[in-house]
Design a protein that fits this description.
The structure is a homodimer.
Chain A lengths: L7 H8 L3 H8 L7 H14 L5 H8 L4 E6 L5 H16 L3 E6 L4 H13 L4 E5 L10 H11 L4 E4 L8 E6 L1 H14 L5 E5 L4 H16 L9 E3 L4 H10 L7 E4 L2 H14 L8 E5 L13 E4 L2 H17 L8 E4 L2 E3 L7
Parallel strand pairs in A: 1-2, 1-3, 3-4, 4-5, 5-11, 6-7, 6-8, 8-9, 9-10
Antiparallel strand pairs in A: 10-12
Chain A binds a DNA duplex through helix 2 and helix 4.
Chain lengths: ~350, ~350
DNA sequence: CCCTCTTCTGTAAGCGTTTACATTCCCCTG
DNA sequence: CAGGGGAATGTAAACGCTTACAGAAGAGGG
């Protein structure tokens, strides 16, 4: 709004050097006498000079900003991921342009385009990538397309391609272990609940099915249920099912799992005596209920930090080879909702 | 990364017009024949031209971006606010630079500076403003200082000054009503729980005290408690207090209120038979517990939308007078945790 | 003390737009 | 059909920085 109007010229003048020298000082170039450097620094300080990012952007072709795309920030998992990402990025001098794309493909596409038009240095896509789950080539395509412009980092999603990097947690393993543990503890009917067919959700499902198989249980109808991600919707849906004599539930997020609590309450079932419940994400939700919920910690912080670190290395040194994909192991956090 | 290298020149050449004309088309100037406009549009489309925002920024002195500062995005209230803000802003062609400042003043200051250096068009500060609560002139100062550069919009905070606008909900009223209702329903000892001395928190406290006063109750020690905003911390703190024979609690957010549930559970108190609980924010947390929580809906969506709308009017027309402060009424959402 | 080599500093040409101002083009009017 | 006026278009100067390249200043050797 108000123009500070202190430009590099003013600094140069007052310090009796050329603007080139000021610029060099600003960028920590080593071809400046320490004496000149100090002189310039002092003037910069006195004048309160801040370089104009637009002009810098024109010259450097970057503004050191990263686009973060989430389907919805008001989801506890997404918002914590964004928090971790932002923090790490800020620590490295990058700022975040946030975009709430929604779950629709068209929305995502247009938001990606918008971010690219802002000339971000890289894009981070958090969750909800259907691509790679085999049923949306269109999603794969637009991501690949975008990756021709800037490197893309996907968190808990998976798209292969030039310039595309991903960080995932080992959902399959985690779900396998949890399911296996339930079965081995004597549970007869473990039901799997999900609200999406995203890459992560599919891996979780695979882990669940693997556990059934290895324990000689055949998957029957009604053991894998598609629900809506709203506590009460889940409850109502479960209540509506006639013969749901499940004794354990494993859900792809904590909100869904909370729906099971509500269902249990309604049916008069005790947790964990009558039914056990395992949630996912180990979010704040998991300790809101009573008994507190056993949940799978998918290591959001670690994944986010690793992602940012790899990204920074790549940006600072494009020649560098960085791992295309990293996988982090989840933790099963045992609380009162299970009776292992 | 990869340079598209399609610039306005290319468009101009191919369309046989000057770059000025292309620029005019781009900005919807009316001084262009519709024929020329179409011709240019067509070429822009064919070439897939996207203007370089840095160059545009240099010329226009804006990149149409808004800085959003939150103390922590991983709080349900903050993240939902950011979601609403982002959505509304994106709908108006602005993008958001997000900054997680933490609660410390120094952090906030440096983040604000960073955002300003990015030449944002305006700043939105969400919650956690201690300024105006009388105990931090330093905070008032740096906000006023920043407001000399760009307009600042504060959500649920209050700082007066040139270029500073705020949107708040009527916390005092809401807390007054809830407390009053509890007292009138026969509760003898209503305890107020807070984790901060922010502007909002202070208003809530004032509403609580007003209700006590109007009902002829004198505020005694132990009726207003400062707690840490972590479910288990709240529980432990309450458990540690010897003679806390409260029969109702009113908390400044839902997480704190959940701590009361945990405390009740531990003490064997039934909700709402033995104690009533009122939360704040009407967040997802409020329906996670059992019985579900009565909570005060502070109208985040409305406040955010109003804020963005006022901001846009101001930015598009700086002469325009927009209200300095708007106040929105809260709703008391009654659920099972109270026995009014 | 002069010359060479190295290191530091300055000059000026971009970077890709916007936009004030100049110019051209049309369409009327007389 | 000349001339005037207004609308459409073009020209070129910003915008504020980075950086290749040129030039100056020191250091060191003969």
């Amino acid at each position: 709004m108000k123009d500070d109007s202190i430009k590099i010229y003013d600094v140069a003048n007052k310090a009796n050097v050329s603007i080139a020298t000021v610029s060099r000082v600003l960028h920590g170039s080593d071809k400046v006498t320490s004496k000149t450097r100090e002189k310039v620094m002092k003037v910069i300080d006195e004048l309160g000079y801040t370089p104009n990012v637009f002009a810098q952007g024109l010259g450097l072709k970057t503004m050191h900003s990263i686009g973060i795309l989430v389907p919805t920030i008001s989801d506890t998992y997404m918002s914590s991921a964004v928090a971790f990402l932002e923090q790490r990025l800020a620590g490295n001098g990058y700022n975040c342009i946030l975009s709430n794309s929604g779950f629709e493909l068209t929305g995502k596409k247009s938001h990606v385009e918008l971010l690219l038009s802002k000339r971000v240095d890289a894009l981070i896509l958090v969750g909800s990538t259907y691509a790679g789950s085999g049923n949306s080539d269109e999603e794969t395509d637009y991501i690949r397309e975008a990756a021709r412009q800037v490197p893309i980092f996907i968190i808990n999603g998976n798209v292969q391609g030039e310039g595309i990097y991903s960080s995932v947690c080992d959902d399959l393993d985690a779900t396998f272990e949890a399911t296996d543990k339930l079965i081995k503890s004597g549970y007869k009917k473990v039901v799997f609940l999900t609200d999406s067919h995203s890459y992560s959700a599919n891996k979780k499902r695979a882990g669940y099915e693997k556990a059934l198989k290895e324990n000689g249980i055949t998957l029957k109808k009604g053991m894998e249920l598609d629900v809506e991600n709203r506590i009460h919707k889940v409850r109502d849906y479960l209540l509506s099912r006639k013969s749901l004599n499940a004794d354990a539930f494993i859900a792809t997020n904590d909100d869904i799992a909370l729906g099971v609590y509500k269902y249990a309450m309604e049916r008069g079932l005790k947790v964990p005596e009558d039914i056990s419940i395992v949630g996912y994400n180990n979010s704040a939700m998991s300790i809101a209920c009573e008994p507190e919920m056993t949940s799978i910690d998918n290591k959001t912080e670690k994944i986010c930090n690793d992602t940012v670190d790899r990204m920074i290395s790549l940006l600072e040194n494009p020649e560098l080879e960085i791992p295309r994909k990293i996988t982090v192991k989840c933790d099963l956090i045992e609380r009162g909702s299970t009776n292992f």
